[in-house]
What we know:
alpha+beta; 3-stranded antiparallel beta sheet
Amino acid sequence: xxxxxxxxxxxxxxxxxxxxxxxxxxxxxxxxxxxxxxxxxxxxxxxxxxxxxxxxxxxxxxxxxxxxxxxxxxxxxxxxxxxxxxxxxxxxxxxxxxxxxxxxxxxxxxxxxxxxxxxxxxxxxxxxxxxxxxxxxxxxxxxxxxxxxxxxxxxxxxxxxxxxxxxxxxxxxxxxxxxxxxxxxxxxxxxxxxxxxxxxxxxxxxxxxxxxxxxxxxxxxxxxxxxxxxxxxxx
Length: 235
């Protein structure tokens, strides 16, 4: 847990109101987003930050008003992003040892991740926080109701890449991606692969046990109390 703050990213927000200028910089342990095209601002799908009451409140206000933010991280150069219309904020409180005041935890998700985008407003896609093949198959199958088994994970990943139906996203504390294939297309690919013998269903019926790797929530205890303390003290 030493030097935990060095693994945090940073979310920055600035606003000018008449003679008053608000500048906020918060430690960010998770981020999922995409860079913009031709000088345009990028899209932020999810961010997790910690800080004080006033700073967290200012960021929430900026999200509601669809303002611009600057995000950066150990492997992420500073980029300007917006969470878009309809983004949602979820606040929480974290009690950290040796701190007199609790730490405020803020999670921001875009309308697309929250499932609030009107049907047909944009191409159907699934945004995932981990690129592990087993995790991708498990989450996509669960969301779309696909008949799959864990043994198909490598085939599924190769098929997505071969058909250019997967796109890596920018991330801090995770390795996110977006799957752009629809349920109809995925069912067609599975049917063809079964006919060709590339994949097969189990010979016997029974429950399926998934052992899914997910580094988003458990990453060598980086999100522990000591890490949060270090991140806040170095904000």
